Structures are given as C-alpha cells and as structure tokens.
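I am still getting used to backbone structure tokens and would like to learn alongside you. Please make up or recall a protein chain and show it to me in full. Would you write everything just below, so we can both look at the same thing?
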Amino acid sequence: MVRLLPAGRRLAVILAILAACPAFALHRESPPAIRLTSGGPNFVPQTRSWAFSLIFSSTDDLLANGSTGRQIYYFTLFDYDCQRGVIPPIQVTCPEPPHPFLVQLTSGPGDPDNPTIDGSGNRIAFDADGSYGGGQGAGHRQIFELDLDTGELLQVTAATDGDSVRPSINFPGGVVVFESTAALKGGTSGVPQVFAFFRTAIERVPITVLLQITNGAGPSTRPMLDYLGKFISFESTADLLGDGHDTGVSQIFASELEHGKPPFSSRLIQITRGDAPSHHPWIAEKDHFVLFDSAATDLPGAAGGGGTEIYAAPIDAGNSPTVVQYTTANPFGNCTFPTFSPGTTRFAFLCTGDAFANGTAGNRVFAFDAGANQLFQITGRGDVVGPISAAVGLNFVAISDNTDVSGGDACDYQIYIIDYFPFPGHWIPATRPGQLPYDLSPPPPPGPNSNLIGTRTLSILPADPAAGGGSQATLTTQAGTWAVGVDPGYVRLDIAARDVNQEARIGVPGDTVILPPISFPGFGTFCIAASGDGAGALDCNGGRAGGDLDSFRDHNIDDTDPACVTGCREDGHCQGSLPGPHHDPALANPPSPPPAVCNGPPINDRTGTYGAGGMQLEVPVKVTLSAYWGVDGVPCTADDTYFFRDAPSTLALTTGSATGAILDAGNVLGATLEATDGGAPFDCARVKTGDLTGGELVGTLSLLDVPNLGQLTDVVLGLHLVAAPDICINCTCSSATTCGAAADCADADVCNGTEQCQNLTCVAGNPLPCDDGNPCTDDSCDPTAGCVHTNNTGPCDDGNPCTTSDTCQSGTCVGVAGANGGACDDGNGCTLGDVCQAGTCTGSPAPDGSLCDDGNPCTTGDSCLTGACTGGPAVPDNTPCSDGSVCNGLETCVGGVCTPGTALNCDDGNSCTADSCDPITGCAHTTSPDGTPCYDGNGCTPTDVCQGGACVGSGSVACPAAPCSQAICDPSNGTCSTTQLPDGAACEDGNACTTGDTCQGGTCVGGGPVACAPLDSCHLAGVCDPANGCSNPAKVNGTGCDDGSACTLGDVCLNGVCSGVVVSCDDGDPCNGTETCDPASGGCVTGPLPNCDDGDPCTTDSCVAFTGCTHQAAGAFACGLSGIEQTFLLLQQDVQAAPVTALGGQSRQTRLLDLVARGLARVESARSGPARLRAHQLQFIQSKLKFITNVIDAGMRRLKIDPRLGGTLRSLAVGAMQDVQSLRASIA
C-alpha cells in the first residue's frame, strides 16, 4: 500500500494557510501529451513560467526558419487548442485567424538561454552573451529583458569579470533576480551571488535599482521569485547569517525584499541548517512556502528516511522553521526537483523508487494533491531528468524525457507537456498500488489492428558488479562453472498482431542482432553473431505448449552415417573438413572395425507450457572463440588470435527454463555436463507501449571438443539476458547514435577523428589538429584528405625590424628592406649605434674591454673583444649553475662549462601513467585512459586494465582439476598446479547410483547406494542406472490419483501426470462477470461485474443478459441535458478550487456554489421528472445561470474577482445558457 507520512507530518498541517488556484487550462480539449521539441537534447528550464505557458530555449531550428544557435521559444496551450480547432465556441472565443502556439522570441548570435516570462506574457528575461543585440560585455553571459510588445531590449548587466545567468521574473514583471560571478556591486568576483534588479517609478520618474542579496564565500544559486516579487528562494553553501565562509553544504535560504521606495533592502532567512545538502528550492506563488529536496537527517520536524526526500517549509516563520516531510526512501527512493503548480495545493517531483509497487522504479514523475490527499504517478517508463515544471497549470506538468510520451518516434531528451486532468481521453496517472500510468497502460486504439504490437527493441541490461543483477553468462566444463557479466547489446523484434489466443508471431532480422563479446578469463572470449533471420512467438495469456527448452548432445554415438551426412561429424573416416570447433580425428583411439563412434548432433526438446507473457526466440548464429585480443585491444575483431571461428549453431532463448547438457562429456562414458537457468515473462501491456522491462530470456549453446589451451574441452555456454529500459535504436538521435561496433559510427569524415562505439553509443573522436603555426597558410580540413594548408598572401611579420610591408609569399613571410639609418637593435651587447643597412641591423664594435654577458653562468668578468662578448675566467668548479631545465638535475660548473647533474627519474612505477619531464615544472604523470591494458603483477588476473590511473586486475585463470585434486594458480607466472585433496573430502565418482562419495588416496570412491523412491503418486519406485541415476517409471495410464485441486474431477494418471476433468463455472452470461473455480472448495466464485459505462453522456449504457455491454444512443434531450450538467460540474470545480481572495471573499464563493448546486438539482429534476415539466425545469436552470453571471459581473466591476478567473467562469455560464436556450427550442 502506498502511504505518505502520518497526517501530522503532511502538508495538511499547513492547509489552513495554503490555498488552491483555478484550473484555467482547457483540459477537455488538450491531448494527453504534447511534444514541443525535436532533435535535441532539449530540457525544461529551471526558471518559472507564468501565464499558464512554457518558455524554453533550444539549439534546434524548431520552426524551420533557418535559425542557428540557441534561441528562445514560447508555447501557449490556449493557442495550441485554438489552432487544432477543438475548443467549443461556448467556452471561449479563439482569435481569427488563430495565433501560432509556438513562437520564436529571439534570433541571431549570443545563445540566449534560461528564459523566464511575466504573467502578462509581454516581458521576458534571459541570459545571453554580452554581444547579443549589439550589447556590451562580450565573452561573458549577461542578463537581458525584452518587451515583446514594443521590442525594447534592456541590458541589465554588462560585466567583464564574470557571468550573470538564470534569471527569474515576478508576475507583474517589475523584478528580476539572477545569479552572477561578476562583482556587480564591488567586492570580489568568481563566486556566484544572488542579485535583484528592479524597474519602478518614483513620483512617476522611471528608475532601475540593482541590489546584491548575498555576499558569501560559497556559491549562492537557483534564485526564484514569488508572485509579487516580495520573497526570493535560493540555495547557498555560504554561512550567510554568520561570517560568510563556505560550509561546503548547500542550504535553503529566502530573502524578503523591500522595494516600495528607496532605499531598497533585503532580509535574509535561513530555512535549513542540515547535516547534508538541500537543493532545488521552488517558492510558492503567493503563499509563503518553499519546496525543496534534502538529504539531511536533522531538519526540525522531519523523520529522515535514508535518502533524498521532498520537504516544504514556511519562509515567514523565522530561521530553521519546522519542515513538512512528504517522501521517504521506502518506498519513494531518492526524490528531487519539486515544483509547485499554480496555487500551491499540488506539486510534482521526481522519484527513483517504486512507490505504487507496479515495477516502474527509475526516474519517474509523481504529483501530490495536498487538498485531496491524493498521490499520482505520472510516468512509468523512459528516463525523466530535472528540472520539471508544474507551473503550466493545475493538472499539467512539463518534463524532459528520453521516451516519446506523445506516441511519436522522437529520440533523445525532448520537452513534453502532460495533461493528467481526470477526463476521458487524457493522461491517466496511477493512483493505487499495482496500477500502471498511462505511458505503460494506454487505452487500446479502436479498429481491427488494436492487437498489433509492432517493432520493439530488446535492449540487454548490462551486469552491475556493484549492485548485482543484470545480464550474465556461464561457462560449464568438466572443471567447473564460471559466471561473468554481459555488456550491453540489443535484438530487434518484429511482433505481429495477437490472434484469438493472444499469441503473436515474432520475426528477428539477423542484421539487428547485436550480442556483446563474452570473456571468460583464462579461457577466451566468445563472439556470437547472427548468421540469418530468426523467429519466435509471444504468448500474452499463457498456455502455449513448449515453453521450456531442453538441448542435449551425446559426445559418443554409433556411427550409422559413414558418409558423414547427418550423424558423424568428426570421425577420421569422414571425407573433407567441416567448419567449426570440431577436431579431426575426434577420438584418440577409435574402435575398429566400424561401427565407430562420433560426436552427436544437438537434440532439442520443448516441454512444459508458456506462462503469461512467455516468449521464445530462435536465431541461427556463428560462434567464434578468441584466444587473444589484437593490438587494437578490442575483442572479436580481425586482428584477434582465434581458437576457432564461425562454428554454426542455433541460439534458442526462452522466458521459461532452459537446460543444456552433454552426455559422455569429454569422451568419458557416463559423464554429463549440464547447465539449467530460468527466465522471466514479459508484460504484454508494456511490450505494446515499447517497454520490455522485466522480461528475461535464457538459453544454452553446447559445443563439443572446443580447442582451448592445448586440449579439447566440451563446453555448455549459458546466456541470461535481462531486458533493459528502451534505448534509441530505430531513429536518429542528435546527441548519440546507437551502435554495435565502431564501424557503425564512422561518418567518413577524418576531420572528426575516429569515432568509437561505447556501451551502444557512438562517441565522437578527437578532431584533427590542423593548425601548423604558420600565419602564411590558411589551415582547413578536408573530410577525405585531412589537413590542408593553403598558402595565402596576407600581411605578416618576419620579425626583422629593418624590413617593411611584410607579406606572405609561397608560404613564407617576406619583407622589403626599409630605409637605411633607422635605429634598431641587433641583439649584440658588444656593438654600438645599431642602424638598418640594406634590410639588416648592423652596429659598430664597442670598445674592447667593455663589460658584457656571454650567457655562460660558469664564467665571470666577461668583456667585449672586436665586437664579440668573450668569456672571462671560469668560476670555481662545483659552483651551481642552471641550463634552464629541471629535468637535467642540479647542474654545476666544471672547467667553465655548466655540466648536467643526475637526471630526474620520473618513473613512478605505475604502468597506468605516462611519465614525462617538463623543463620548467619537472616530472609529470599523465593518467592513461581507462581500459588501457597493463600488468598488476599478478599472473592469475589475465585481463588487467587501467582504471582511474591504477592497474586493476580482473578475471582469473581457469585451472581445471581432476576429481580429488585442487588446482591452484601461481600469481608469479599464472601457471596452474594441482594438489591432492585429503582423504574424506567430498567428490563425485561419476556413478549416479552412489551417494556420499569421498576421496581415498587421491581416488574418488563411491559411498552408499542411492535409494530410488517414487517421484509422485503417478510414478513407481525406479531402479538405478550408474550413468543416468534413478529411473522414474510412470504408473499405468488410468491409475487413480489426486492432483490436489478441488476444481478437477476423476483424477487419473496419464503419462506420469495426474490430471482430471476441469470443472466449468462459466454460466455463459457476461453480465455476471467471469466465474472461476475455487481450488480449495471446488465451488464456483463470481468475478467482478462488467463496467458498462463508456463515459459518453449521450449514450444509455446497460448489460444485456448473454450479450454483454450495450451502448444505445440517448435521446436529444437527455444528451443536451448531460452537456449542461457537465458545465455546472466544471463551474463547481473551478469555484471550489479558486482562492477565496480571487473571488472577492468567502461569501461570494458560498453564493456561487449554492447557485451551482441549485442548478444541478434542477438538471436532475428535468432528467427524472415528467416530460410535460421539462420546459418549466429548463426555465429554472436558465435563471440560475443568469444569477451566476450577475454575481460574476458584479464582482468583476467592483474589482473583487480576478479578471482571468471571472472570464473563465462567465464563459462557462454563458455557454450553458446558450445550450439551455437551444434545448428549450427543441422541445417547444
């Protein structure tokens, strides 16, 4: 059962203060989900949008008008519905022609981002490069305001010492807050601080004021304004109420602004002072509360929970107020990014737990209605990343999801608006345990193809070494069984429509099967590739025969096929060679004369039945075993060294059980290798939506005489593939392209570097560096040829002061000799009067004996001689000197020459760093990329790779051991040795008829005999066969038995199974529900009665005996009356949800609700009363609606009722009056 915290800790504590806001959105017209973007990735901004809209930025040209760079877009739901023509004219009048619902608000360079819009939809604030619109402060992000009516662009900041970002605007549009690393009000730049910008007027004179809110050593970020701009919420790691030092732990703060008249000021309030970080504050519109998430365990009033939880706290109750906790780690997991809807009674947030116990753990969207104490789960699949926004409307939430929840095929993270208003045709959230949300359980589409499932992608969930779980592979040989994790892969499934038995055929295109390499340390790497198309089946309700797979091979069988056509594949008498791991000849001592023995073909049996959601797949494959990866370090590529290649086989997978066995394994009569595993079924409802999460497929491959490490080994390879959440496979994603190998990522452009495939995702290579440092060449890159250096003829500088008009010629900078006599410096300290002569700087020799410096630190008293500096006497030996490089050690003078010392030894002994020496800084140790091969000094871990700069060993050398011996790997060289087990150690003597086998003198000796007992009531006690164990003979068919179920009669044994005739409880009348038999009592139990309500007020719904639900068209009067009733209900809902202040007081709200209730009563009287009084009842209904419009008009004239709310209510009432008038005319 899903539970919130006890009532004392819920938002109910503060419901007396919190108030609801009307749902202004036109829910009945909105589709379940709207996708606003494409390309991507695109994300919901962390700022608030007012005016029941969403403003966001994107780098994609969403309107196909040639825009480049990041631009700002504005979406309005009202215009969206008007464009689609779905708003009834009785509700509101759409403009003619309709306005565009998606508008681009910016253009040109500057990458505007993080937009926020005021309540009128006329003024936006955003950050952009200072060059935007010709502004100042280029190279840094600045804050701008744009008036959408006048086009006026106001630049709020123009700093050159930091960036100003993430503005938030209040509803009237006069206040903007933002964060900035610039010293906008003096002080030190570099640490984000919160600022407030005011546009106001003093005695009708417009003024602007910039106020600094914080000034701490730690960053203050994520500021957000309330409705009037009175309060700000933000987070900071600084001790803002103390000495301002950086605590390193983020806390939630608020600030109360005083900006009615100068001097403007602010008052800080610290909401949390917890022992762990608190993040993502979202302040309420008008009520003084803030939502946030926190991992702290010591917040006042909180119960903790062991994770990151959602809290609310008042901002006008002083510092460290008592908080209200909404989630706990069990069952919600970690919860983040809370966001209030308009009015504060409802909020949305992200959680990773499975709160409704419906198997949908992950980054999911939830909402909580505090007024109704109702929890909603909005999404159940995909991956939603924060922030999200519930500010679009009461029942709306804007999200960024990597799954197209609108039903399209968009890839990557896109922005969606979901409308979960409780009305037919909308997004139905989960509200009870076990229920799935709309994206996993949408209503079936109408028409004959409603059972069609279509193309789905089975993504292989990789193993998680830390948490456990995920996909695995096992290797079973006579030496033991080893398990390893499986990396990501995928298989495309083309699933047909389900038939009457709820079964569907599956096609598996071979070119879409990507199975990852599977490495067993000390044995090799298996490479499995599809060699053709496969097929399979899905059974949605279970019962199909053959749900389990049993595969057997016999190492030794009679040679009844001397031509080797079907049976014998390895015998030396066979002509020619066959592909695969098989060895020729197969047997060291083949019996003579024939019949000989040879390895047998696989025998596949299908037993049991499919469970509900059961699936089987069968794909032809080629199996390769790689011994050593090549120089590229990538397995299963052309430069590998292989034990064998391309052995043909068939990979059969099932959600039931799979058993693979080899009889006479290793050419030992009676020895058996066996591996068994079990899968898990799929949920067909989820599969239909594209979510295969929860399904697990298992299968085995049996290989005989695998050449490995100098011997032949029989092997059973087991696969356990767990389905992962969706990834983008069959569509194009701009940020990542799904791949199976590096070749899938190559874009034929050498300029981008070499693309790689990592975890099914194409990763861009390093761009080709083409700058040759020569100003006389124009450097570019040709996608095919690579770097191109084209000579230019531009100006340059040849570094010679005696030349002028330097220009590039043939790739070289060439100057023209300047006028003779110009002053210059030839760089020689022993010349005087340097002047230019014929383009060369020349000087006269200085007098001999003039002091100079020959640049040699090991001489002293240097002097000029005939225009050249000559070194003086040598300094004493061992005088320290320096050649400018610390890499040469401590240099000293010897005989007047600076001699290197002992060179710096930069070898850190770490094979996962590249060691080098910089002449200035000394030794440098560059960390090798993760995955680089290395050696950890342990020969028993053969697949050592670098991780985080350290050599980490993985895998282990497989050391086969005979019975009664123990194999040990020597770490110094990786070789195996064996030691004899002590007497009495348990072992297996290969005789299935002995038990308690023990080692005696190195030999496995059988214990006592096995007692063969009957398996069940339909079997007799068997006899023991040393090779196969106890036989299990079935009793004679027809022998009486009891299958344990009271719902069967006349139970008898049939082929070893006890079964009877099933009692039928179906009375043939669907109106009684589906009857079932109680296995305990044998009595028939009635199932739930069918719900025949189709949600259409214009039909009369009933259940006809032995026929089922029928929906007959209601009369015109009843249909019209139902429409009027729906309008009264909408009026009632909006009036109840509205804040009392928006209606001008409690008395007006009570009056309106009373009129609505009277109107509904008259509707019911008209429906159930005599037909002759219908006109009379409609007249009363008309009068109630007229009274309602009068109350609304009076309140709006007196400025008591919010004009937006009043307009919505009045439109509903007037529309209903028109409907009543039409209905009265129809019965006149």
